Amino acid sequence: MGRVGQAFANSLAPQLGGRTVGTYGVNYPASYDFLNTAAGATDATNRIAMMAQQCPGTRIVLGGYSQGAAVIDMLAGVPPLGNKVGDIGSAPPLPGGLNNNVAAVAVFGNPATKFGNPVSAAGSFAGKAIDLCAAGDPICSSGRNPFAHTHYESSAFINQAASFAAGRI
């Protein structure tokens, strides 16, 4: 799940009043090759579909950091890089019948935010998502501080996102 995802899950679990929390790290080759992101969206769709079939009452919380946030963008039908690359490397959005299984979404350092498409306001997760961007983060804003993108796991954003998600479950 990565360090940001683990911090998010660790913060969320105690806020859910003893409910069982399971985690799943989306399987894809995260790298500087942004085209790999579509494989993550496909894996996430398959996992959500499996959970919906096996455990239809389960409330799913999606989270993503940086390229992982772009995976979430694809699931929401939001182009992660705006209109800069079009549909190159994109995966189809999450089928509409599965959207009700997703209770909340939290993304950190989301590239789509830089292009005016925060997942909190665009796509199928609008209204049940929180999109968090550190001041100066060049991945999700017009900032120029690359170090702003590297410390989400120890930021106040983790608890903010967990509180948001817990409130939607």
Could you explain how this protein is built, in words?
Strand 2 (102-108), helix 4 (111-114) and strand 3 (129-132) form a beta-alpha-beta unit. The chain has one domain: Rossmann fold, CATH 3.40.50.1820. 33% of the residues lie in helices and 10% in strands. The chain has 169 residues and is α/β, with parallel strands linked by helices. It is globular. It has a three-stranded parallel sheet, sandwiched between helices.
Say how many strands there are.
Answer: 3
Q: What structural category arises from helix and sheet content?
A: alpha/beta
The quaternary organization reads as single chain
Instruction: Tell me the strand percentage band.
Output: 5-15%
Instruction: Compute the number of helices.
Output: 5
The N- and C-terminal alpha carbons lie at a distance of 21 Å
Helix content percent band: 25-40%
> How big is the Rg?
15 Å
- What strand line-up does the widest sheet have? 1-2-3
- The CATH architecture is 3-Layer(aba) Sandwich
Low-confidence stretches: none
CATH class: Alpha Beta
Taken from the alpha-carbon principal axes, the silhouette is globular
- Looking at the structure, the CATH topology is Rossmann fold
Count of all domains: 1
